[in-house]
């Protein structure tokens, strides 16, 4: 390996280590304790979390995870590990994987890089669109970890890549390759993970980033704008989230006469519960029940060659001078 003394920490959200209610409860508990994710006053939120959400949601969500679980484990982890291995091979510098919640943690990822002699670290959160709920949560974890160390490495942090030409190209290529094999749909919907609307009103740029990604992708695909739009999925809790909601959009499209619908999920770097179950299973059922005929989830970029090349270029750009 080259010895520039720098390493890359790839970060994603994290996932349960088993598809059992107990493992999911552990994961959700860590995730939903983070005030970046749920900002409600602690004395109000903690009784709801421990008294209602964890006991009720864990067994329910366990069944959903079981429906997408792969032989090697949770899809989010399996694809993330492939990305780490491929990027390391491609760059020929140490690349470690760390999850904000669960294992492998950010702490073990940083330790791995330290052990390999890296005193410069580039952090690449695999969230193309910045959100305080995801990207800033990564930053918090890194700061918390390094707080305990006498020597901190030189750090660089990639905030977003929602409009990076290589990212847009990778998305466009994955759609065109999918269509070359399966034919073109009547309509393409870009479904992004949602956040509470209030967070955006308070300055989270996430929806602006999602809009830009969609616009640039539409342009690149030369897709007529009447045949393409965007929406937000994975609503949680009672307050209003970013609109339009994915499920209602899909139902309306079927009722308007769209027979074949393809959905892409550009905010997800890898396929996971939210794409493989919520979109490919639940939303497909909604579409068919409302009169649609053919529904496809275009897979996430996962370990696509173009996706790894995009990461490689991001790393090269952000390590100039190292
Ligand atoms: C409670 C609020 C949540 C916010 C805000 C939120 C933002 C957010 N999440 C992702 C990416 C992922 N989320 C995933 C699962 C997931 N998300 C929430 C809640 C919030 N997400 C929950 C409770 C869960 C767990 C499943 C469930 O109980 O429904 C995942 C998948 C993880 C997996 O194991 O496969 C991803 C990825 C983004 C990008 C985002 C904000 C932009
Ligand atoms: Fe989420
Ligand atoms: Fe979901």
Automatic annotation (TrEMBL):
EC number(s) on file: 4.98.1.1
Entry keyword set: Cytoplasm, Heme biosynthesis, Iron, Lyase, Metal-binding, Porphyrin biosynthesis
Alphabetical list of Gene3D superfamilies matching this protein: 3.40.50.1400
Pathway: Porphyrin-containing compound metabolism; protoheme biosynthesis; protoheme from protoporphyrin-IX: step 1/1
Subcellular locations according to the entry: Cytoplasm
Pfam families: Ferrochelatase (PF00762)
Superkingdom of the organism of origin: Bacteria
InterPro entries reported in the protein's UniProt record: Ferrochelatase, Ferrochelatase_AS, Ferrochelatase_C, Ferrochelatase_N
Coiled coil residues, start to end: none
GO MF annotations, alphabetized: ferrochelatase activity; metal ion binding
GO biological process: heme biosynthetic process
SUPFAM superfamilies for the chain: Chelatase
Family the UniProt entry places it in: Belongs to the ferrochelatase family.
Classification via PANTHER family: FERROCHELATASE (PTHR11108), FERROCHELATASE, MITOCHONDRIAL (PTHR11108:SF1)
Name of the protein described by the UniProt record: Ferrochelatase
Source species of the chain: Photobacterium indicum
Name of the gene encoding the protein in the UniProt record: hemH
